[in-house]
Amino acid sequence: MLYIIIPVFNRWAFTRACLDSLRQQTMPDFRVIVVDDGSTDGTGERLRQDYPEVEVVDGNGQLYWTAGVNAGIRQALAHGADRILTLNNDVVAAPDFVERMLYWAKRQPTALLGPLELDAHSRRPIFGGEVFSWVTHTPRSLLDSLSPDDQQGLHPVTYLPGRGLLIPAAVFAAIGLFDEKRLPHYLADYDFTSVARRKGFPVYINYDAHLLTYPEESGQEQTRRQRSLRGYYQHLFGIRGGGNLRNFTHFALKNCPAPLVPLFLLNGYARRLTGYFLRG
Q1: What PANTHER family does this protein's entry cite (predicted)?
Q2: Which of 43, 88, 102, 241 has the fewest CB neighbours in a 10 Å radius?
Q3: pLDDT per position as a tens digit, 233-259
Q4: Does residue 208 contact residue 119 with C-beta atoms inside 8 Å?
């Protein structure tokens, strides 16, 4: 049985749209667990009233993304889940999203799969997987390198985000859950999929499955929207900071090839210290 795990904190309108899209799936053979991490906008009450098919796990307001996802995964595995799909609440699944993910999961039963992401407003593809160079510290976007005819089916990637990530239960048995101790919010998904890949589990982007996302709603974009010294500090040191230096260091030490670690760290620190003000 597939279990879909959605961590939430407030933003009920997004959660409702996400759950409504799951109700409209062409293949409804799955169950949903929402981890409500102390929402103050009535999310918990509305979930129980309007979506009785959804199992709600309550948090204490301090779980953040990684511990929230892990709480849902533990519950799902206890129920006997054989596949887990982590999903952010600010996404909308295409009607055949689950069907297209499971189609390829049955053909690649040990693989981790992520969907092609489209901008929810323009329907333009905005993320189609990356192949990362540890030497140059740069990703190669498959959207840019694949021809239109090749933008279908599965393509191997270095890592995947967690906002639509399908994971076989066997992966958790082999490598454990997401690293909530060292990576409480950002990079936990990239770390998890990178570790899984090195342990022999293929990691693919699935161009046949589509997920609508709102890139302007990400924590990183909101932090940069009004640049300030306080925002800069949060960017570098806050739990929700996209440039968190501590998190980046942990990610690098765990995943970068050992001979490249010093150069990779220096490159990464420079990008994070300057990128907050340089990015448009």
Answers
A1: GALACTOFURANOSYLTRANSFERASE GLFT2, RHAMNOSYLTRANSFERASE WBBL
A2: 102
A3: 788 888 888 889 999 999 999 999 999
A4: no
Confidence band for 156, pLDDT divided at 50, 70 and 90:
very high
> Taken in order 155, 157, 161, 166, is the CA torsion positive or negative?
positive
What mean pLDDT comes out for the span 129-153? Answer: 96
Considering the domain architecture, whether residues 164 and 207 belong to the same structural domain is answered as yes
Q: What share of the chain is helix, strand, coil (3-state, %, to 5)?
A: 45, 25, 35
Residue 236 has φ and ψ, to the nearest 5°, of -90, -30
Phi and psi for 67 in degrees, rounded to 5? -65, -30
CA–CA distance, 210 with 213 (Å, rounded to integer)? 10
Whether residue 150 sits in one domain with residue 74: yes
When pLDDT is cut at 50, 70 and 90, the band that residue 278 belongs to is low
Q: Two tokens at 99?
A: 């069907």
Looking at residue 191, what is its pLDDT?
98
SS3 267: helix
Structurally, the chain folds into a number of domains equal to 2
Name the pTM for this structure. 0.93
Residues near 216 by beta carbon (within 8 Å), at least 6 away in sequence: none
Q: Which two tokens stand for residue 47?
A: 């979930």
- pLDDT at position 280 is 47
